[in-house]
Amino acid sequence: MTLQWTFVATVLYVEIFLIIVLLLPFISPKTWQKLFRCRLATMLSSYSAIYFYIFIAILVLLFAESVREAWKYSKPLEHDDLRQFPEAENAYNMKLFRAQRNMYIAGMALFLWFILKRLITLIATEATLMAQCEASMKQAESASAAAKHFMEEKNTREENKKNLATEEKDLSAVEKELASTRTDLETTREELYRARVDLNTIKKQAESTNQEYDRLLKENAELHDKLEGGDNKKEK
To answer: Global pTM?
Structure first.
């Protein structure tokens, strides 16, 4: 195998190995994303387009060469050549086999190169989508927590409003009772004042009655004394 076909076969084996490693299920896309974003990968990715097109050009040229060789040796030999050179058919078939082998190797290497490029792109896209999904989940959780907090605050406010309304009702009832008590107190005060006035009037009337009674007693005693004195004079 010549140098160029050894290179193509090496590229093919490396591509197969990389595809198998990239398809391992226990390595997450995030890990590959971190590896793709390392310093060396970043330096290589800056020239990735150039490398990609160079390898594509090389593989296309080698594939075209292998196709040409396979087409060249696919023609059957003439019987005269077989008679003159008996070993020519084996050599011819060997060259045909090598041309077909090189064509298959170059074609598979070219095909797997596109597969590898697409697989790396899909892994990077999946890692980005996973990161966005996690960010969206965190935002949804924070939004849900905020909505729950707002609902709790709303319920607390409604309960406070209900409690305040109940307290206002109770306060209005207490105020009504207090106003009624004040009214009753004013009425009682007025009645007490009237009773005091009536009591003072009765006391004054009783005092005047007592004084009149005392005066009458004195007059009665004086009259009685006068009557007794008159009787004594008559007897003498």
So the answer is: 0.53
